[in-house]
Known about the structure:
The protein has 340 residues and is mainly beta. The chain contains 3 helices and 17 strands. It starts with a helix and ends with a strand.
Amino acid sequence: MQKAIARGIGKKERRHASPIPGQTGGEKVRLYAPELCMVVLLISAGLCHAQSLTPRAYVITPPHFNAITMTYSFSEGATLFNPALPVTDARSKFSAPDINFVHTLNFFGRSANIAVLLPYVVGDFSGNVLGNFASTHRSGMGDLAFRFSVNLKGGRAMSLQEFRLWHQKTLVGASLLVSAPTGQYESSQLINLGNNRWGFKPELGVSTRRRNWVLDWYGGVWLYTTNPEFYSHNNYYPGINTLSQNPIGATELHLSYDVKLRLWVSYDLNYWYGGRLILNGIERPESLISDSRSGVTGSFPVTRHGSLKLSYSDGIYIRRGGNYRTLSVGWQYSWLGSPN
């Protein structure tokens, strides 16, 4: 089993292997392999999806507003496995530079926007499996994401002159986030930067302002297609494994304060639940996710068109997956295009 897992994870360092009495190597493979694969999926799949903390996602701007944001995020922490698994001291350390483009538009008289996110991930993953140390390094493109958001109440599409006289009260918006299977993926490996499946997240958001205070709440659900080749075509699994995942409900709460124009700070909190995995048609109850993170975010104007965004978050309660500390720094350049 140690050789098989090491081939799937990456390079290894042997230490005091201790076989389970009364079991052959093949029996150990059948006992642990599916559960180990599932937890590794939770590590990779949860990095950019359910764990998001994004304040002011439904605050509107005039049509033809554009913004390019370049962000560098660094995450480090432990990876929590099922206690029944022979995996200890699992840790992950990865950075994720990405570029995000947003364009606002008039959608049947309502304020709307489209966004595209292109991530790149560099990471190191390690842990002890049955007493053997194993580690791997990954570097490559993550899954491309698209988002369409439209205001449903409280914010019609306005010209710049109208927008300057407008004061936010309560906004209600809806969005659809789509994750495309464009990231680096090798079906013979356990740890990948892409998920080899489509993801869809419909979401409803509410934003209420009272003077300098803004309260945001979002509620949505992640829906996934099946990964048709999960950890397949290798010496461990020469055939094909299919992996599906039940929906993951996700909610966010943000309380922010405007210090002055374009200068604000926010306290961020989220919670996500569900996502049991189905390996080759068999649901794994132990893969249930029930996790929460909190953090702070600040946006600071630097130039007329440029601003700096800083954020930090950490796990409050992590049942499965990565209990990461994440620090990110972003630079945003924004401008108002011509209505023609």
